[in-house]
Amino acid sequence: MWRWTAAALAFCALGAALWFALRAWGLETAADLAGLASLLVPVTAAIVGWAGGRRVPAPPRPVTPPPRPRATPAPSARRTGWTRKLGGAVHAGPAVADGTVYVGCDSKVYALDAADGRVVWTRRTAGTVRSCPAVADDLLYVGSDDGKVYALDVATGRVVWSRTTGRPVRSGPAVAGGVVYVGGDDRRVHAFAATTGEGVWSFTTGDVVSCGPAVAGGVVYAGSHDRHVYALDAATGAVRWISATAGAVGGGPAVADGTVYVGSHDRRVYALDATTGAVRWSLGTGAAVEHGPRVAGGAVYAGSDDRSLYALDAATGRSLWTYTPISRFSGGWTTPVVAGGIVHAATTGGAVYALDAATGHARWHTYTRGAAVSGPAVADGTVYVGDGTGHVYAMEAATGRGDQENKGRETRNNHLE
After folding, report:
1. Residues in contact with 216: Cβ distance below 8 Å, sequence separation at least 6, in sequence order
2. Are 293 and 254 in contact (CB under 8 A)?
3. Both 302 and 267 in a single domain?
4. Which of 158, 147, 162 is nearest to 122 (CA)?
């Protein structure tokens, strides 16, 4: 009898080990679980046999084939990736242009060599940089908590011009038609001449504008924490229409095929007619949609603080798939990026995922040292992302491989054929 009692205790220990593996190792696919099961089956058989008083024969020793000579990969097949520690925290996503990664960390703007992460130049501001940079015509545009919008020379970091708004500028700028459009904590959407910084117009909303606007067809689309989405004439700032939601709009809109897509803290994703602002459809999630959606291939991809990433039909809002990680490092989703049929997205729990855009199956996932507060950038087959510990990572878009230590966990390659 005592043998069966001991066996029951052993099974309890196995159950605890299984729970720990699922939560701490980030096992999330059928392949992961099958591999874990293959390890537990012989252990389970041994416990049952011992409890019944039977000897369980040892499994046959595998025959080890002779080692194959290691081939040196071609230069183009070598693994690429790097990690660069910049400072205390990266609060906004990077921008990549012409082989250079531009990103804010603490009160500085950094230019990093995209190939190896080497610092090319830095430019200090008088406040924390929480604005995702934008690059156009050899100038880098970025906002700062010091209340200024900066235009920097992309090659040297020299300040070409700066303009004061009076309150922190945490919106990522948008550049179109020789004009820079940006929102601020002064509740305004500003338009500045891209080459000189001269003010073109400004429009006052009812609350903070923290998200980067979108520009399409001569119209600027911007969300505000006053729960509204605004369509403004790009040349004059005149109101075209205003559409209400039931929560703060903190993520930037996406515009495609005559429709404006936006998320709200009211837990919904909206599709608005770009001409009239009328709601074409909306879909509820389980928590606030803090970050903006992305549109590609007839689908809208939006993350929610309910730990799920949603793929929706752009025309109807019909659900195509939903991905919800079980890892305790998941958290809410930042703005995704779609490239090469893959949805790349980071979470506030410190994980980076690559999902098949058509099916939602996980291709790979990996971990950063801290939480991501903004979405990644993808360029030339590489994913770039920053985190709350001041690190910037570069990893292969196809595999997730890089030189990141990722809390001691390896990248999981979950290709589903």
Report:
1. 255, 274
2. yes
3. yes
4. 158
The closest alpha carbon to 357, from 294, 268, 287, 282, belongs to 294
CATH number, position 177: 2.40.10.480
Residue 303 near residue 309, CB atoms below 8 Å:
yes
State how far the Cα of 57 lies from the Cα of 37, in Å rounded to an integer. 20
pLDDT of 22 over the 70 cut: no
How would you label 137-156 residue by residue, b for 16+ Cβ within 10 Å and e otherwise?
A: eebbbbbbbbbbbbbbebee
113 shares its domain with 223: yes
Domain of 140 in residue numbering reads as 127-210
Nearest to 301 by CA among 311, 288, 291: 311
Same domain, 182 and 312: no
237-262 b/e (C-beta count within 10 Å ≥ 16 → b): beebbebebebbbbbbbbbbeebbbb
Q: CA 9 to CA 248: how far, in whole Å?
A: 51
- pTM recorded for the entire structure: 0.81
Which range, of 42-56, 126-140, 167-181, 260-274, averages the lowest pLDDT? 42-56
Confidence at residue 40, expressed as pLDDT on a 0 to 100 scale: 54
In a domain, 57, yes or no: no
Pick the closest to residue 122 from 147, 140, 138, 135 (CA basis): 140
Task: Give the length of the chain.
Answer: 417
Higher pLDDT, 278 or 47: 278
- pLDDT tens-digit profile of 263-279? 999 999 999 999 999 99
Q: Are 356 and 342 in contact (CB under 8 A)?
A: yes
Q: How far apart are CA 332 and CA 372, in angstroms?
A: 10
**pLDDT at res. 186:** 97
